[in-house]
Amino acid sequence: MDTRNIRTRAATGANALVQLIESNIADGSWTAGFKLPPERDLEKQFGVSRNTLRKSLKLLQDKGRIVRHVGRGSFVAPARQDLPQSRALDSFVPVSADSLVLRIHGASPAEIMEVRLVVEPAAIELAALRANAGDVRRIRDCLTQSEQAGEIADFEHWDGQLHVAIVAASKNSLLMDLYATMNETRNQPEWLRLKHRSLTPERRRIYQEQHRRIVDALADRDAVTARNELRDHLLLVRSNLLGPVNS
Amino acid sequence: MDTRNIRTRAATGANALVQLIESNIADGSWTAGFKLPPERDLEKQFGVSRNTLRKSLKLLQDKGRIVRHVGRGSFVAPARQDLPQSRALDSFVPVSADSLVLRIHGASPAEIMEVRLVVEPAAIELAALRANAGDVRRIRDCLTQSEQAGEIADFEHWDGQLHVAIVAASKNSLLMDLYATMNETRNQPEWLRLKHRSLTPERRRIYQEQHRRIVDALADRDAVTARNELRDHLLLVRSNLLGPVNS
DNA sequence: CACTCCTGAACCATTACTAAACCATTAGGA
DNA sequence: TCCTAATGGTTTAGTAATGGTTCAGGAGTG
């Protein structure tokens, strides 16, 4: 360990490790499919505890840079350019004439946030055109509940419901199904951990302000403002969850 | 700690053996028809257990590299021009096991077109950033096929494939899965009738021109133009399918 | 003090590999 | 034809590697 580096929090720790490991991947010394050394080796190699190392690996996993498997090891994920192309074609299974089943395999939080950024701004534009008084009331109700929530878990529940209610107000059942499915993912343990780690009281306050501006614009039928506010909100959420995005 | 000499599982074992044996075949030291040594010899030669060796042989068999017969032995398979290897066998990167299930119930053509108008323009923007040469080639191939198609059914098939290929080039597997599932809906009877009724030769000619402009913009990495052209195309398709839209 | 981040350690669950025995089919010679 | 060895196929128990989880405690910060 380099003794020149005074180990302040900003210089060491999870975030610094993420950048270090990411640079290994970026410069090609760790190519797709490369098996990372076991955590118990990396721990010594980087001079940090296993807990800290694992936090960094978790961040890399969330960003879709690596995949990890119990008993197998951690591997550098295929680069975006190498992503399998053909899987989509055989991933659907028709179960009846009017219903299809889609299995979504291991969508990373990064991918999910990207899709949310596609779907939600579009949905709120439609919602601004089509929402009725009941829809607006339901949305405002979610907003109020989230603001009155004490527990973080409560806030997150009503936060999720708010976004669902907005998409539902688009009156497009297909869009709603897509979004609701994605939303399921956010209730999985992995995603919950990610949220809990990133949700500081200060951020929660900002989110609530954004929510209010979004809902107000929607109630005013101001599609353009609603879209922009929602987009900004999602960009901030993504940045808080996954760090700065560079694609 | 010297990690070079630590025989990690990925470095030895089944996967490494596959590559080792495959190189023997590739460099011509084992030609087609060559009888491999018995498993009980190879086991010692490679220093692994028979179970592990057999796992590797199974992978090679699945890839069509060797054939095996009880009581006779294992033989190098005749070389084949096409290698229809399943990607799962080709890639040693384990994919995450968790999966979500999406059910789509009887989405109407109007809803589907609306979602396409949301998803595809966004996808082509991402694709303009991320598509590699192979993606562009695949997309151009669909375009060519659709232009050379005689039958209406052929044209529609390659039309569909073209749009799937564009979304696939966005490298977001979640977006890809969502879109491919939706696309499957378009093969249902109601949708087919709608398409056949609306697709006149004149319209087909216009679609092809639009397709070409879209693909050219994508190949030029011109995200804005690609997005706008694709949007115009989808608006025209929707209008032709469903009549003037007044939402 | 309260809070956050890190360390160190123990233990759990899943996976890969080893080792050994036994089964089923085939080839080849008595 | 019949017997035997060779060979791939199968099963099972055990060991080790590896990521996942939890907890107690220390160190710096506001």
From TrEMBL, chains A, B:
User: What is the designated name of this protein?
Assistant: GntR family transcriptional regulator
Matching entries from InterPro entries are given as:
GntR_C (IPR011711), TF_FadR/GntR_C (IPR008920), Tscrpt_reg_HTH_GntR (IPR000524), WH-like_DNA-bd_sf (IPR036388), WH_DNA-bd_sf (IPR036390)
GO MF annotation list: DNA binding; DNA-binding transcription factor activity
The segment(s) forming the HTH gntR-type domain are 11-79
Gene3D superfamilies xref list: GntR ligand-binding domain-like, Winged helix-like DNA-binding domain superfamily/Winged helix DNA-binding domain
- What keywords sit in the KW lines? DNA-binding, Transcription, Transcription regulation
Record's superkingdom? Bacteria
Do you know which Pfam families this protein is assigned to? FCD, GntR
